[in-house]
Amino acid sequence: MALKQISSNKCFGGLQKGFERVSVELNCKMKFAVYLPPKAETGKCPALYWLSGLICTEQSFISKSGYHQAASEHGLFVIAPDTSPHGCNAKGEDESWDFGTGAGFYADATEDPWKTNYRMYSYITEELPQLINANFPVDPQRTSIFGHSMGDQSKWKAYNATHLVKSYPGSQPGILTDQGKDDQFLLDEQLLPDNFIAACTERKIPVVFRLQEAHCNLHPQGSSDLPASASRVAEF
After folding, report:
1. CA–CA separation, 168 vs 204, rounded Å?
2. Is residue 87 part of a domain?
3. How many CB atoms lie within 10 A of CB 33?
4. How far is the C-alpha of 215 from the C-alpha of 225, rounded, in Å?
5. 8 Å CB contact between 202 and 229
6. What are residue 45's DSSP bridge partners?
7. Residue 42 belongs to what H/E stretch?
8. Is 33 within 8 Å of 79 (Cβ atoms)?
């Protein structure tokens, strides 16, 4: 099935587009968003794939993050896929906010009733990049991936922050991490900041870890509008 364009808007000299296509891997229609930078009019450009978190769609990042100006200035394609199949009628897919619709976890299911449609790993790592490379002036040798929340792909494991710190060859940067102490993912041990702190400690990289009286807060270095309820500092 050919790509169906469903939206197109000018943005910082480029174009923010939305597309729909029946996925071979997922056996359903899938939407994804593509930002085409101005430089794509004259040659191939590098690409970033953004993986959104739980309950998000392909619209979440492009409408909330404000990334377009930076992508335009640096000549970057940004591809934002949906987070799961939709409307596949798999038993139980809409019973929980963190499993099924909106929560595909970028994994390939191996058991019924999920394995027919929930093949997000193969979709993200194989089908979608092939589709993008065939239809847009993307340089396939200059692609990378970023995101938040549920993305954890083994193909890109080397670019996980904890793994990057373990092999970081440069000077020692100062790292600040703010974590809301009431974040349910922290309480359920799905977030593992201690692993990152341990990796920094092993590499003698200074890190400040602050627990905030909130669900989640992010502060740039030097911000003081909210005091930390607790903090740990590893300095060398």
Report:
1. 11
2. yes
3. 23
4. 16
5. no
6. 138
7. none
8. yes
pLDDT per residue as tens, the chain (236 positions):
689 999 999 999 999 999 999 999 999 999 999 999 999 999 999 999 999 988 888 999 999 999 999 999 999 999 999 998 888 888 888 888 778 788 788 889 999 988 998 999 999 999 999 999 999 999 999 999 888 776 545 556 666 788 888 888 877 778 888 888 888 888 888 788 999 999 999 988 888 998 888 655 443 333 333 333 344 444 33
Residue 122: its H or E element: helix 120-122
Cis peptide leading into residue 206 (ω within 30°) = no
pTM, two decimals, is 0.72
Paired with 169 in beta bridges are none
Residue 149 Rama label (left phi>0; alpha psi -120 to 50; beta):
left
Q: Is 71 helix (H, G, I), strand (E, B) or coil?
A: helix
Q: Do residues 84 and 116 lie in contact, with contact meaning Cβ atoms separated by under 8 Å? A: no
Q: What is the side-by-side strand order in the sheet with 230-234? A: 175-180, 207-212, 230-234
User: Which residue range is the domain that position 17 belongs to?
Assistant: 4-152
Q: What angle do CA 198, 204, 210 make, to 5 degrees?
A: 55
Would 227 be classed as within a structural domain? no
**pLDDT recorded at residue 234:** 42
Backbone angles phi, psi at 14, to 5 degrees: -110, -160
Find the CATH number of the domain harbouring 20: 3.40.50.1820
Name the domain count of the chain.
Answer: 1
